[in-house]
Amino acid sequence: MMNCNAQTNKAVLDKYLTLPQGSRVQATYIWIDGTGQGIRSKTKSLETKPGKIEDLPIWNYDGSSCHQAEGSNSDTYLHPVKMYPCPFRRGDNLLVLCEAYRYNKEPTKTNKRKTCLAVMEKAKEFKPWFGIEQEYTLLDQDGHPFGWPKNGFPGPQGPYYCGVGASRVYGRDIVEAHYRCCLYTGIKISGTNAEVMPAQWEFQVGPTEGIDMGDDLWVARYLLERVAEDFGVVVSLDPKPMVGDWNGAGAHCNFSTKAMREKGGMKHIEAAIEKLSKNHVNHIKEYDPNEGKDNERRLTGAHETSSIHDFSAGVANRGASIRIPREVSAQGYGYLEDRRPSSNCDPYSVTMVIVKTTCLDK
Amino acid sequence: MQSHAQTNKAVLDRYMSLPQGTRVQATYIWIDGTGEGLRSKTKTLEAKPGKMEDLPIWNYDGSSCHQAEGSNSDTYLHPVKMYPCPFRKGDNVLVLCEAYKYNKEPTKTNKRKDCLAVMEKAKEHKPWFGIEQEYTFLDQDGHPFGWPKNGFPGPQGPYYCAVGASRVYGRDIVEAHYRCCLYAGIKISGTNAEVMPAQWEFQVGPTEGIDMGDDLWVARYLMERVAEDFGVVVTLDPKPMVGDWNGAGAHCNFSTKAMREVGGMKHIEAAIEKLSKHHDSHIRAYDPNEGKDNERRLTGAHETSSILDFSSGVANRGASIRIPREVSAQGYGYLEDRRPSSNCDPYSVTMVIVKTTCLGGE
Known about the structure:
The structure is a homodimer of 362-residue chains.
Chain A: H1 4-7, H2 10-17, E1 25-32, E2 39-46, E3 59-62, E4 75-85, E5 94-101, H3 113-122, E6 129-139, H4 172-185, E7 189-194, E8 200-209, H5 212-231, E9 234-236, E10 251-256, H6 258-261, H7 266-277, H8 280-286, H9 293-296, E11 313-315, E12 322-324, H10 326-331, E13 336-338, H11 347-359
Parallel strand pairs in A: 1-5, 11-12
Antiparallel strand pairs in A: 1-2, 3-4, 4-5, 6-8, 6-9, 6-10, 7-8, 10-13, 12-13
Helix pairs in contact in A: 3-11, 4-5, 7-11
């Protein structure tokens, strides 16, 4: 039985979406809810297309319905921070990424962007670049991975990574549609691949500088949720959706400063790794929305992960906390890959703590 | 149909009509550690590549493709040929790659490197090839597509080159694949329904030298992707159904310039003489498991020769080498080596044929 969103007739929708809409424009405000991993949105009509971000009004929503406020004092504020063209409604319609603020003008508990932006401002002469590899799993509406036999399992992992063919990959249409949406909106999507567990996929966003990493990744996640919803398929960012001999899902964060990217940069990479090695526990706390509890199920030391208990680093080593790509080691400069962040991490938290530790000496 | 893995193609079309800007998607394709599996992943390029040198060397996780250890897993992709992408269209491209290990050696299943060296050495012979790729469609349960569930169709007889819903299964996939090959510039020369129902054949050629392996691997990739889009499985297994059912081969038609000219028959006969002295080493090169796969197919029945003996004959489909009747009649042309398995590596096949017939066997 297909998900209800796959059953509504898409040709009927297309007929309505071709209606001209006049000069009024639709802006979809997007925010992060009280769980620190859920995304919410609602739409407002604007009289005309906004020219710049300041043209977008501050708005508000019911925080008590997002685990963010009491019913008696629920208004929570949306401050627009970035605008993207809307790939669903097209034309002049927009998506608007927002920061959420409480009635007392403080950021909500899960608004990590405010402090991330402050750190990125402080560290801007380092020109910190990021690229995040977002892994995720597609599920059917019964919670079982999409395409897996019902009440059963596919053959063991081996044939699925970067696989091709109806018996090896499930849901490529969603991946293709999402990629196109990201290109359309200007999000710096750098690639996609099928992952080791069937129905698991990855897309990469980057390289981006500073606050753009968190912004683009949250909007890319929103696009993925919407595209999959359109196909009637569920997306999970859970870091270990299937117990047993099945890979988990991460959000490996590739990172470099200007000094690391220049000739001789390897000494800066090694210095950064040294600092990271002394801050393992507090990084782990920032690498999923539950202070490491989610990552405990994933970072076991097996399935191409490092153990959550230890810090390690190595060239081309996918079992280490930090991997130095082989060509970086060979040429003596480049970037490092922090493989610890969970697929459901907040990229603002991750990028902020990496910069704090390696550039700002805490 | 496998209802729980279906996604709505009209929904995909709506997203694929979004303009993508100037950035271009390049799908890198490689052969995995099994020697018969294809893998791919996509990278965004800032602009359409003008020539091969514009495509960067990339890498992937060889430990997830049976090609490396997790502790030292980076495996490199060297682009060798570009084709327009029939799935994403526009300026998007497919990029065929050779795979190299961390120590710059080709991976064990990268047979292209040696093949290219042989083709270079033999180039004054102008070796031409045409391969007849047979394959079988399977449903998600592993049974041939269109066959009755828990049963069998009537005996072979009515199915070869047939027409009609009770005689051929999956023509849509064949049609779509043919169009993709034409779009991509692959030298597809024809298709036909084969002797076993749900079995088909396409031919690629005539092509010279290294192009045969390149075009056939990409044609196989296109077939996997097209069938995946239809939710049907493709198998290149040489004997998918035990019993009175044909196997699948990749007959390799071959000629040199001398064979193609008037009086060329003596060169064809000389080549057959050389091939007769190298039967065992050729059999080892004619499937990815040194002859073990072909053992199940080359029985001497079902239009095959026996794996144990070498034979040749005019118009003889039970021989190792068949000389087409019109070639015999006009005294020049080409020969058909009927031994290669459907899952052979065309680089291995074309290389060993040229080594034996043009370069003195080595």
